[in-house]
Amino acid sequence: MEMQTKDYDVAIIGGGAAGLSAAQALGRSRRSVVVIDAGEPRNAPAAAMHNFLSRDGMNPLELLKEGRGELVKYGVEVIKTRALDSRHSDAGFTITLGNGTEVSARRLILATGLKDQLPDIAGLAENWGNDVLHCPYCHGWEVKDLRLGVVDSAMAMHQSQMFTQWSNNVTLFKDPNKVLAAEELEQLEALGVEVVEAVVTAVLGEAGSVQGVELSDGTQREIDALVIMPNFDVDVSCVKSLGLVTQEHVSGLGRHVPVDDGGQTEVPGLWLAGNVANPMAQVIMAAADGLGMGLRVNADLMQEEFARKVAELRMKKAAV
Ligand SMILES: Cc1cc2nc3c(=O)[nH]c(=O)nc-3n(C[C@H](O)[C@H](O)[C@H](O)COP(=O)(O)OP(=O)(O)OC[C@H]3O[C@@H](n4cnc5c(N)ncnc54)[C@H](O)[C@@H]3O)c2cc1C
Fold it and tell me: Pick from 87, 205, 228, 242: most CB atoms within 10 A?
């Protein structure tokens, strides 16, 4: 039996802050819009979201649930499934979905976020997003004045310095195989950061309540929260047939998909919003990016429609 393909003006893969904001702008512009969402936003492990004015402390999943609710009145459809691949079609793009169906759309917005790759330390993943954290702006206030440990990484020096803004009890667990410059050691000393020459091998305590760390020298240290730096990666397999390329981000912390200033990719009609393009964007920034992309895609569709209408008018006039 031939597969039924439903047509839309715009398909959006990813229903996080970026994707839903793009959908809202497009739905309000009277576009037919479908959002395809696997429902695994990056900050899902965190109990609360911060730095989003008027939504401070809200559960991240609750924000998206409310967002999806707001889209209903604009006729935006949200399909909870994974997009598997996308190809060019007469309509623009045809997207194959994990639920066995397909959708097609004139334009495609990719808002699939990024994946945090955590260091392989026992007990760490269970506490990720709460007592194991990476971003002082997301969680710094919540761990203020607590005993903080920093796991060694390319960003450990920077994180050790930064977190002294939130606590005067910061310990850097430095890989003994790495050498810090005398100037760096002096900076850490000046900021009151203790340097322990050992690798963190396990996080101790129940999930949701870190009590300490186990170290490579066999000792344990009591801490209340652990600072790490994940590597980020983007999964663009849902557009693999379109030939989108990923590239190392300038921060050296992982991969992203480069876009031009307007969020357009090298693939005509394919736009990007949120963390998939800008790994540094926090929720309100990803939402703003999605909104901007919604407006640009609407403008792009309007240009196409204006050109078609002018051509039709000319043909009509030529025929009389
Ligand atoms: C632990 C943690 C805590 C954080 N806390 C904060 C905070 O307090 N405040 C703040 O501002 N920022 C915070 N952030 C950053 C925040 O997570 C990002 O800014 C935000 O999630 C980016 O939104 P996005 O829409 O680009 O991506 P996401 O929110 O990750 O959404 C992407 C969506 O696309 C879906 N998707 C991916 N691939 C497919 C596919 N093939 N098919 C269908 N759907 C797909 C995913 O399932 C997901 O639902 C935190 C990040 C982490 C890791």
Answer: 228
Q: Is the CB of 14 under 6 A from ligand 1?
A: yes
> Tokens 């060694």 identify what position?
152
Rounded CA separation 303/204 (Å): 58
Tokens found for residue 222: 């009591």
Residue 25 CA, chain-centre distance (Å), reads: 20
Q: How far is the CA of 287 from the centre of ligand 1 (A)?
A: 10
- Ligand 1 contact via 156 beta carbon (within 6 Å): no
31: Cβ below 6 Å to ligand 1?
no
Count the neighbouring beta carbons within 10 Å of the beta carbon of residue 129: 19
Q: Which region among 57-61, 253-257, 308-312 has the lowest average model confidence (pLDDT)?
A: 253-257
Alpha-carbon distance of 104 to 34, in angstroms, equals: 9
Atom of ligand 1 nearest to the CA of 285: 19
The pair of structure tokens assigned to 51 is: 């730095």
Q: Is 145 in the pocket of ligand 1 (CB under 6 A)?
A: no
Domains of the chain in sequence order: 5-116+231-319 (3.50.50.60), 119-227 (3.50.50.60)
Q: Counting beta carbons within 10 angstroms of the beta carbon of residue 156, is it exposed (0 to 12), middle (13 to 18) or buried (19 or more)?
A: buried
The length of the chain in residues reads: 320
Cβ neighbourhood burial of 69 (10 Å; 0-12, 13-18, 19+)? exposed
Q: Which two tokens stand for residue 291?
A: 């909104």
**Cβ pair 49, 43 in contact under 8 A:** yes
